[in-house]
Amino acid sequence: MYSRLGLGLADVRRVWICxxxxxxxxxxxxxARYHVETGMSVEVISFRDTILPELTRAVSTANYDDEVxxxxxxxxQWKEQESRLPPTAQSAIGKLPLRNExx
Length: 103
Description:
Blueprint: E1 14-18, H1 24-38, E2 42-46, H2 47-58, H3 67-83, H4 87-93
Parallel strand pairs: 1-2
C-alpha cells in the first residue's frame, strides 16, 4: 500500500493520539505486543499533555478563520492577562455577578 505512494514501511510514522495515558506500564506492553504482531512501531501522544500545550504556545492574536484556533488564542490571552492581575483582583473575578444573575 505505501509503496504506491513511494514510501516504505520504515518511512511511515504511526501515531496514536489519546487524551492521556493512565497506565504507562500496560501501554508499553501493548505497544511491544503490537510491534511483534504487526512489525510496526507506534508512538502514543497525549492530547492533554502534549498537543494542547503545543497548540496554545503556537497560536498568537491573529484573527484566525478556524474557530478552534481562535478559541485557543482567546484562552491564551485570558491566561496571559489574568496572570498580570494583582492577586486580589484574580480572586475577585470569579465572584463578579453575570449580567442576568440576581445580585
